[in-house]
Design goal:
The chain has a domain of 110 residues: DsrEFH-like (Hypothetical Protein Ychn, Chain: A, 3-Layer(aba) Sandwich), CATH 3.40.1260. The protein is 38% helix and 13% strand. α5 links the parallel β3 and β4. α3 runs parallel beside α4. The longest helix has 16 residues.
Length: 175
């Protein structure tokens, strides 16, 4: 009898805490709709200024995912510390990232680098990888492309992997 009373008490506590809530209690607004429509062609310009070169891996994912579903041209304007990744002298250090960007370039993504920022960082055009085009000024290039209908994207890097568990890290499944 003591075990039965304990189980009833635990069951009641679980219900109060929402652990054993009924399905309708967990979804008072129903279920999400799906609208997997197609997109008209949209040209886009990625405004890139990353301190951490590893963020270029996320950029690769952004561009790859967008290119799968949105027809149009992609242009990346580089004008931050990430420029060092594209210096030939750093190829061995950043080979994996550079190879991914070169792959995007082969698929049609253009990479344009700000001459002003490049010189401020101590580089010259001849120091950069061959798929880079040096342009006069990064912000001016972005403005010019926007005036031609390109939609600006500021690809901030915030990981969504495991975001389901941000408030409840104890619930994160083991890998």
């Amino acid at each position: 009898m003591k075990l039965f009373n304990t189980l009833l008490m635990v069951s009641g506590l679980l219900s109060v805490t929402g652990v054993m809530a009924a399905p309708e209690e967990l979804a008072p607004y129903g279920t999400a709709k799906t609208n997997m429509h197609t997109y008209a062609p949209i040209n886009r310009v990625f405004d890139v200024n990353y301190e951490d070169p590893a963020n270029l891996n996320a950029l690769y994912g952004f561009i790859t995912n967008i290119d799968k579903v949105v027809p149009g041209k992609s242009v990346v304007v580089l004008h931050g510390p990430e420029m060092r990744v594209f210096a030939k002298e750093n190829y061995l250090k950043f080979q994996g990232i550079v190879d991914k960007m070169a792959e995007l370039s082969k698929q049609g993504t253009e990479f344009r680098m700000c001459n002003n920022a490049m010189h401020a960082a101590g580089f010259k055009a001849e120091d950069m990888d061959g798929f880079i085009t040096v342009i006069p000024a990064g912000f001016a290039e972005i403005i010019d492309l926007e005036s031609k209908g390109y939609q600006p994207i500021n690809p901030l890097v915030t990981a969504v992997k495991d975001s389901r568990y941000i408030e409840h890290p104890e619930k994160k499944p083991a890998n």
